[in-house]
Amino acid sequence: MALITKIREKSGVAAAAIAISLVLFLVGSDIFQGKSSLFGSNSQEVGEIAGESIMIQDFQKKVEEATQNYTAQTGKGPSEQEASMIRDQVWNQLILDIAYKKEFDALGLKVSDEELIDMVQGNNIHPSVRQQFTNPQTGQFDKMFVVQFLKNLKTLPVEQQQAWDRFEKSISQDRIRAKYENLLRMSNYVTQAEAAKDYQAQTAKFNSKFLFVPFFSIADSSIKVQDSQLEEYLAKHKDEFKGTNTRSIQYVTFPVIPTKQDTVEFYNSIKKLAKDLAVAQNDSAFAMLNSDVRTPYLVSYSEIPESVKPQLATFQVGGIYGPFKNGLTYSIYKYGGVKKDTLFTMRASHILIAPANKSDSAKAQARTRAEGILAQIKGGASFETLAQMNGMDGTAQQGGDLGYFKNNGGMAKSFEKALFGYNGAGLMPGVVETEFGFHVVKVTEAKTNTSYKLAAINKNIAPSQATMDKVFTTADAFANANGNLASFEVALKKDRNLIMMRADRLTENAASVNNLTNAREIVRWAFDDNTSVGDGSKKVFEQDSQYIVAYVTGKSDKDNVKVEDFRLELTALVRNQLKGEMIAKKLENKKGSLEQIAQAYGAGALVETVQDVTLASGMLNTAGPDAIALGRIAGLKNGKRSKVFVGDNGVYIAEKLSGAPAPALADYSPYKNQIQMMNTQRSSFYINEAIKENANIVDKRYKFY
């Protein structure tokens, strides 16, 4: 019985593993808008896969079966987020059963009965079977255990036999999909010419001097872009702008804020809880039972709220302290003393200097730079300022602050060893080397393994029902009085206390709207066939502690791409195109050195020099990684100057000072292998994308969930 329960659980894991390989179908996938809606239509089609219609009744039945399996495995029903994941898994399984199967059948791929037997109890055991029947005492797979289990299978309850059937189906599908992907993957061959080209791109270097006029040197406001120009650009670049079904909305919120009377009643309840906590025999259990937000009883100093830390030194064992306010949460504490932990906690800031590459010379340059920064700080310079100026990771803008961390492997091993081997606080005397580079480190709070016993009752202040009803009445009156976008805009001008929020390009399956989580009701309304651009919701949506009235301001259609769908992107591209033409015209026919031409051009023109640039990872100083410019410069003969040309980021006149192809190799195998490995890593994605496109998947789940 225990084994079949485990098999049932693992069959779900195997199915989930298959579903994971199909995540690419959902991430960034094209979603097709249906012609009907749950609201105001009788259509029961939840989608279409490879020409096969999926009806909501059939889909929901599979969802309910999967939900029952989930509940049996976990002992609890799924949350809203988990329910959404279950629906995704069922949808992915349908894609596998229909779209993938059509591809398998077209190639004659299958898993025979004999092969399935071999996978379960033969000479080529599937990894999932091997995992299930591994002896926990010896850690060894036991084939006889499989055979014995199968002999007794018919004596088990029907639902357990069904669990085994699902498990066999999942490993069979896993095998046939592996056959299909391997077949396509092995058809990919990297030629020596491709490998040689990649080698040259990574190895061949050139030196160049160029005049660069960036697009940003001309103010955007000085360039007027016409709609006709946007239309023309879109028509020429249709493949670059893929349409999607989206909705844009504006909305106004009516927050439900506790009144003064609500606050008085809340404080009275907090005081009573404080008295009860003081005399509770098991204070930690009492605190847990009475908290809206549960927190551990034993906490490190870093885990204590900032509002509590200044008073921590005054706490007496057995004392009650608070309430402390954090947003709408109030906390009271019963202090139980301290305890030494096995882990240490500390806080530090750092300045990371990363080498440009893995060469010894690059590492030496990075170390020298880091040691120079350390010397400046020792001389009195501000650590935080130098971190902002020099730091090469995400902490730079925070002055290098890493926050609190423990010696539990969360940091790089060498970094952790150096810092937790340091006693006290302050600037560490030398730089710390890790695989990421060289770190200048300041310990802002010394390491400690002291933990604090704090029984915390955390209560969220909430408005009363009377307060909620009053705000709802206000929101409802607003919705009824302003039923369309035009009247909404008038209302906004009249009442400056109303705050309008905007959410652009919501997709059909979006679960949130800006910071509004679980906002599916709003999204479904926006995509309803009976909802048009300019319509107001005419109803009030409830979201956490606020009420919302929404208006549709725009829509896009997958099959009808318009300028308005990509106005910002198109405007930026056309504007740069016009700037490029203006700059190029001004530079044409100018003679002399690059410096002389730059001086004649005027403000905005730069002359820069780059050395040892490669096509694979080239940077052109101010111009950055401009692919067009890199290609044009690399293609010049040594000592030659280009004509004026427009790149990705501006306009150029370039001179190739020197450069030579990398010497030919006798063996390009390392580069062939590198390309082959990258192709292999990407193959599943490309296969998924190809099958998805060929299957013409229409996902209408958004109409029902």
TrEMBL record:
<keyword id="KW-0413">Isomerase</keyword>
<keyword id="KW-1133">Transmembrane helix</keyword>
<keyword id="KW-0697">Rotamase</keyword>
<dbReference type="InterPro" id="IPR052029">
    <property type="entry name" value="PpiD_chaperone"/>
</dbReference>
<dbReference type="Pfam" id="PF13616">
    <property type="entry name" value="Rotamase_3"/>
</dbReference>
<comment type="similarity">
    <text>Belongs to the PpiD chaperone family.</text>
</comment>
<keyword id="KW-0997">Cell inner membrane</keyword>
<dbReference type="InterPro" id="IPR046357">
    <property type="entry name" value="PPIase_dom_sf"/>
</dbReference>
<keyword id="KW-0143">Chaperone</keyword>
<keyword id="KW-0812">Transmembrane</keyword>
<dbReference type="Pfam" id="PF13623">
    <property type="entry name" value="SurA_N_2"/>
</dbReference>
<protein>
    <recommendedName>
        <fullName>Periplasmic chaperone PpiD</fullName>
    </recommendedName>
</protein>
<dbReference type="InterPro" id="IPR000297">
    <property type="entry name" value="PPIase_PpiC"/>
</dbReference>
<dbReference type="InterPro" id="IPR027304">
    <property type="entry name" value="Trigger_fact/SurA_dom_sf"/>
</dbReference>
<dbReference type="GO" id="GO:0016853">
    <property type="term" value="F:isomerase activity"/>
</dbReference>
<feature type="domain" description="PpiC">
    <location>
        <begin position="346"/>
        <end position="445"/>
    </location>
</feature>
<keyword id="KW-0472">Membrane</keyword>
<keyword id="KW-1003">Cell membrane</keyword>
